[in-house]
Amino acid sequence: MNIFLAFFVLLVSSQHILGDEKIRYDDFKVYRLTPKTVQAVEALRNLEDFNSEYDFWTAVRGVGYPVDIMVAPHLKYRFNDIINSGEFDAEVYISDVQQLIDNERPKTRLAGTVDWTDYNTLDEINDWLMSLVSEYPDKVSLVKAGISYENREILGVKVVFNPGNEDRTVFIESNIHAREWISSAVTTWILNKLLTSKDTNVRQIADIHDWYFVPVFNPDGFVYSHTTDRMWRKTRVPYFLCAGADPNRNWGYYFNTGGSSSNPCSETYGGPSAFSEPSTKTLSEFITTIGPKLGAYIAFHSYSQLMLLPYGYSSSHLDNYQDLYNVGVKAASSLSQKYGTKFQVGNIVELLYVASGGSMDWVKGTFKTPITYTYELRDTGRYGFILPADQIIPSAEETLDSLVTILQEFDKIKKN
Question: Residues in the active site (predicted)?
Fold first, then answer.
């Protein structure tokens, strides 16, 4: 990226923040563009890779696949030139991003509590995790899974209901991308339900597995998304003119072999090297201590309503792809029962795009963990990353239904 262009992008991106005030997104719009031709697809890819003025909420996939792009008001006329080229079907999908942000959370809430009627801050989540250790001392222990660039501890809990299940360990991660708040909300709700539910199916999977929950993989970015910029995605490690790398492109398995950018101002900047981000490096070291005992690794993201299978660097159906796919289809069916929410199931590259350097790929490739899924939770774009808080519990309920199916079905495979 040309140094002068990068500096211009930095100036543009700073126009809607003053001092320590929160960035506002008044009159920012999200356009849904569907490219009609191969040339249009390539033009969008170039726009995503080299022009950081536009925030691609979803990545470019191919002809006929919609792409959601957030556009600042001062860029709308320039963006209209793209729309008017005739190469795209286009619609305004979200007319005012700030209005969604203003309506995302309840107007009144009891600060300091975790009850899943609202999104919680990092401090609230961590305080709640520590309270579980006191409330369930025979089942829950606090784990320090890593450390961030800004020296925040990456906290989680280990939950053991019965001894002897070390080789059936389930690891659940979320909020590796800061702005995907629904992911940690679902993770903490499921954790709470495993501790409190009397449902026989929930109790069955809870009791025969050991569990690790790390709700916020990217604490620096997550805090920043609460205090300063609701749409922040990356880490907060400073790079030339821009901050942050994409922590889900930074893991050392087929690192930077496709789907990540070399532009530090890009949302998909993979970092200068694998594990350059202190959070991913220390998390990988912690996961390695569990290593071969991992029976399942589940990552929660948003949005798009997908259950993604390894790998992100290749469309080849590797390892136990067919088992993962067959069980995933059953799990998607279970997920749809309560609210009719439809999820697609498939390989990352086939359903989305090449995305190398992800956490699930690293776990699968390093430890051959049999059960590996990445969820892209609600919705399909009407709210995008700004899912209203009243959807937290429904999203968590349906996700737990699918998780029960995954673990029960793989248990049958293992017995056979």
Answer: 376 (proton donor/acceptor)
Q: Which residues carry out catalysis? A: 376
Phi-psi region of 341 (alpha: psi -120 to 50; beta: other; left: phi over 0): beta
Q: Are residues 83 and 160 in the same domain?
A: no
Residues 213 and 245 both lie in one domain: yes
Tell me, what amino acid is at 377? L
Whether 404 and 291 have beta carbons less than 8 Å apart is answered as no
- pLDDT tens for residues 274-333? 999 999 999 999 999 998 899 999 999 999 999 999 999 999 999 999 999 999 999 999
What are 81's two structure tokens?
């030139």
Q: Are residues 216 and 340 in the same domain?
A: yes
Cβ(247)–Cβ(277) under 8 Å?
Answer: yes
Q: What is the pTM of this model?
A: 0.94
- Please indicate, yes or no, whether residues 151 and 94 belong to a single structural domain of this protein: no
Q: Residue 374 — φ and ψ, nearest 5°?
A: -115, 120
Question: Is 340 within 8 Å of 398 (Cβ atoms)?
Answer: no
How many domains is the chain partitioned into structurally? 2
Q: Scan for tokens 């040309």, then name that residue.
A: 2
* C-alpha to C-alpha distance for 135 and 140, rounded to whole angstroms: 8
Q: How far is CA 255 from the centre of its chain?
A: 18
Q: Strand 294-302 relative to strand 371-377: parallel, antiparallel, unpaired?
A: parallel
Crossing angle for the helix pair 392-415 and 321-339, to the nearest 10 degrees: 140
